[in-house]
Write a structure and sequence with these properties.
Chain A: InterPro entries: Spore_YabP/YqfC, Spore_YqfC, YabP_sf. Chain A: This is Sporulation protein YqfC. Chain B: This is Stage IV sporulation protein. The structure holds 2 protein chains of 2 kinds. Chain A is about 20% helix and about 50% strand. Chain A is built from 2 helices and 6 strands. Chain A has a 6-stranded antiparallel beta sheet with strand order 1-2-6-5-4-3, with no helix packed on it. Chain A is elongated, with a radius of gyration of 15 Å. Chain A starts with a helix and ends in an 8-residue tail after the last strand. Chain B folds into 3 domains: about 80 residues, 2-Layer Sandwich (Alpha-Beta Plaits), CATH 3.30.70; about 140 residues, no CATH class; about 70 residues, no CATH class. Chain B contains 9 helices and 22 strands. In chain B, a hairpin with a 2-residue loop joins β6 and β7. The chains are: A alpha+beta, B alpha+beta. At the A-B interface, β3 and β5 of A face α2 and β2 of B.
């Protein structure tokens, strides 16, 4: 498969050429400041947002953030800054067991 | 994050969205480069967020497709502040107007007080002030400053010896010293009249007392002219205050030196006026720009302090008058020089004698022209009142 071939090349390049993985492989980069802030780059869109839960679409799978009194401070096409009290950050893989 | 300052400057709007699939709408919005922040959920199907004012119209289009309903809640930022300011501009105008009025009224003359003058002189002073434009209700910065008023009053009102002009707040205080103080009726004690200098008596007008000398008599200084002791011989003399004028011919010598050539400056009528505001030491021209092209000039500068209520502001209003002057050389002929010199000498002597003295005759004793100067010695004959009082003391009498 062409896609997995490209993916393998990218993974190899990232490993051997000392390039950051998120740039090479379109992975999300998540920065957390304690429990109060979470900053996610490279997401693919908003799926659900309540004050207790935020669900983001990633290139592969989804990211589920649970907590309390969420406020999206900023949202840009590929970045999101969430404020509140964060309890869990969960990756949901794209397999038959996933929620979607 | 975007700079909050620009957001404030261009204004922001809080949007409330109700409906299903709000997340989908948010995705659409951010993909269309609409900047969204402070997204909050209220209940199951309501969300609020903030956007820039310039995006507010754009989002309607996207919202219509999504099937959600939106409403705009709060508006803040500079454009809305400005709008409110315009709506309430009456207050602002009022405040500015108030300050302007207080400022103007602080610079109006509200009173002129004249102290130490007789009613007649006061009337004259007030008329002179009127002519200068110093009136109640006029602006202080359009009239002369205190020194100028002082100078003009002393020049134009003859009765004044000195006048002090002081501006206290909005009132001009004029302290006047008159040449002729109102005469207090003096109760005269018994006295004689004696001569104050040697003279030949020309006329005698005696109101009271006994004449001792007569017309055409030569009298020495200190000689008794009119006695205060009257009464018939053999009786106890009565003491009175001798009163009257004794006119005598007196002599004065004058010495004058007058240069034949003299140079002085005269204004030729060309002038330039400049007005400016003075902030501390920084001058801002208001009217009258450009440089003058006068070679020889004199500058007159008037500084008017501006007031606000009782305080002096660090701002002054300055008006300058630059007048061109020309050098003028005056040359007298011998004849003219002599006449001038005599006049000068006369003026000198007038200062020494009483005002009512009469010049009878003048004679040039000596005339030299030396080093471009006329040197004259002049002899004057003057008729003046030579009588002065001398009290009669009891000791002399007894």
């Amino acid at each position: 498969m062409a896609k997995s071939w490209v993916g393998r090349v990218r993974s190899w390049m990232a490993k051997n050429m000392d390039l950051p993985q998120d740039v090479m492989m379109d992975l999300p980069r998540i920065t957390m400041i304690g429990q109060i802030h979470i900053y996610i780059e490279n997401h693919r869109g908003l799926l659900a947002f309540t004050d207790k839960e935020l669900r983001l679409l990633l290139k592969q799978g989804q990211l589920l953030i649970k907590g309390k009194s969420f406020v999206i401070k900023t949202i840009l096409p590929e970045e999101i800054l969430l404020e509140g009290k964060i309890d869990q950050v969960i990756y949901i893989n794209e397999n038959p067991g996933g929620s979607k | 994050m975007k700079n909050q300052w620009t957001v404030f400057l261009f204004g922001k709007v809080t949007v409330k969205v109700t409906g299903k699939g709000i997340e989908r709408l948010l995705n659409v919005l951010i993909r269309n480069e609409i900047h969204i922040w402070n997204v909050k959920r209220h209940g199951t199907d309501t969300i609020t967020f903030k956007i820039k004012l310039s995006d507010a119209l754009k989002i309607r289009h996207f919202v219509r497709k999504s099937g959600c309903r939106i409403s705009f809640l709060g508006k803040s930022g500079a454009p809305f502040l400005l709008m409110r300011l315009l709506k309430n501009s009456g207050f602002l105008i009022g405040a500015v107007f108030f300050v302007v009025i207080v400022f103007l009224l602080s610079n109006v003359i509200w009173g002129i007080e004249v102290k130490g003058a007789k009613p007649a002189t006061e009337y004259q002073i007030r008329q002179e002030l009127d002519k200068m434009g110093v009136k109640i209700g006029k602006f202080q910065f359009f009239v002369d400053n205190a020194e100028g008023i002082q100078r003009r009053l002393t020049d134009n009102v003859g009765e004044l010896t000195w006048v002090g002009v002081e501006l206290k707040g909005t009132t001009y205080h004029l302290q006047v010293v008159e040449k002729n103080e109102p005469k207090q009726p003096v109760k005269l004690t018994p006295r004689n009249l004696i001569a104050k200098k040697k003279a030949v008596i020309v006329r005698m007008d005696i109101d009271d007392g006994q004449k001792v000398v007569d017309v055409n008599d030569y009298v020495e200084r200190g000689q008794l002219l009119v006695s205060g002791q009257i009464g018939q011989e053999g009786k106890e003399p009565e003491l009175v205050a001798a009163k009257g004028d004794v006119w005598g011919e007196t002599w004065y010598k004058g010495h004058v030196e007058l240069p034949i050539k003299s140079t002085f400056f005269v204004y030729n009528g060309k002038e330039k006026r400049k007005y400016s505001l003075l902030l501390g030491s920084f001058e801002i021209p208001v009217w009258g720009f450009g440089k003058h092209e006068f070679k020889d000039y004199k500058m007159e500068k008037n500084i008017h302090k501006l007031h606000f209520l009782k305080w002096k502001l660090p701002i002054s209003y300055v008006d300058k008058t630059i007048r061109e002057q020309e050098k003028f050389i005056r040359t007298y002929t011998d004849q003219e020089a002599e006449e001038k010199a005599i006049e000068l000498a006369k003026n000198d002597i007038k200062k020494k004698v009483d005002e009512d003295a009469i010049f009878k005759d003048e004679k040039i004793l000596h005339k030299v022209i030396k080093n471009g100067k006329v040197i004259l010695d002049i002899h004057f004959k003057i008729i003046e009142n030579i009588a002065i009082g001398q009290p009669i003391t009891k000791e002399i009498h007894e």
